[in-house]
Write a structure and sequence with these properties.
The protein has two domains: 153 residues, HAD superfamily/HAD-like (Rossmann fold); 103 residues, Hypothetical Protein, Haloacid Dehalogenase-like Hydrolase, Chain: A, domain 2 (2-Layer Sandwich), CATH 3.30.1240. The chain has nine helices and 14 strands. The strands form two sheets. It has an eight-stranded mixed beta sheet, sandwiched between helices. A hairpin with a 2-residue loop joins strand 10 and strand 11. Helix 2 packs parallel to helix 9. The radius of gyration is 18 Å and the shape is globular. The two termini are 13 Å apart.
Length: 269
């Protein structure tokens, strides 16, 4: 029997409107009341993930910013791994438009969402904006390079792949990165990953990952899915990811509340 559930948010637990539907919420509340450990693990920053936690109405630990930060169920910060300041300085001074004129750069710095390129109202980035979580237009010279938890670039996938190759050639293993979506490339600390953070919270809380199940839809979920007894990749994940995770079973589509349906099946509720 599983005793712990770890789930990504966007593309996984949340529906296509980036919300928790009532069926999913009711299912998680049932499991929480039965004493099942539930952990949210996301690329979102703390305040962005906290809105989901509030919507659920449950006191849950959170792995945020792709594992760069870990928060206890009472919102106490357990650890933080910010990005190497030298990597930060390079990215902030990089002409990333050379890889694609439509690439835009975002920074999560000291839990603020900073956008460094002007966009129009129809840009897909605006789908992520909510009343309590909005980007702030910012220049690059005012960034505290010691307080950056991650950068994320939006753009054409092939162009972002070329950007990824450039950064990897420049810095090697001095940073970690992943495509959280085909059009979103994220750069974060070499010490940060959802898998590392998951092992840390398991150690702190004393639960066994051999009794855990996890759900995800992005390359930033790979380590997490492999750390647990049973990992599930979402059917709406990219074909590239599903081909990479040939040994991982598909859970179904986030638009169909697949996570809730699967855990109802696993926990027989």
């Amino acid at each position: 029997m599983y005793k712990t559930i770890i789930t990504d948010l966007d593309g996984t637990l949340l529906n296509t409107n980036h919300k928790v539907d009532d069926f999913t919420k009711e299912t998680l509340v049932q499991l929480y009341n039965r004493g099942v450990n539930i952990i949210l693990a996301t690329g979102r920053s703390y305040y962005d993930a906290y809105r989901v936690k509030l919507d659920l109405g449950l006191d849950l630990p959170m792995i945020t910013s792709n594992g760069a930060t870990l928060f206890d169920s009472d919102n106490k910060e357990l650890f933080r791994y910010n990005l190497d300041s030298n990597v930060c300085e390079y990215i902030l001074n990089l002409d990333y438009k050379q890889f694609g004129k439509d690439i835009i750069l975002n920074t999560i710095c000291e839990e603020k969402w900073l956008l460094h390129d002007k966009i129009d109202k129809g840009h897909r980035l605006n789908e992520w904006v909510e009343e309590s979580w909005k980007y702030i237009y910012s220049g690059k010279n005012d960034i505290n390079t010691k307080g950056v938890s991650k950068f994320f670039f939006f753009g054409n996938h092939d162009e972002l792949v070329n950007l990824q190759k450039h950064l990897q050639e420049k810095f090697g293993d001095r940073f970690n990165s992943a495509f959280t979506l085909p059009f979103c490339y994220e750069v974060f600390s070499k010490n940060a990953s959802k898998g590392i953070a998951l092992k840390k919270i398991a150690e702190l809380k004393g639960f066994n990952l051999d009794e855990a199940v996890a759900f995800g839809d992005g390359f930033n979920d790979v380590e997490m899915l492999r750390e647990v007894k049973k990992g599930y990749v979402m059917s709406n994940a990219s074909e590239e990811l599903k081909k990479f995770l040939t040994d991982i079973e598909e859970a179904g589509y986030n638009k169909d509340s697949a996570v809730a349906k699967k855990i109802k099946e696993l926990f027989k509720i």
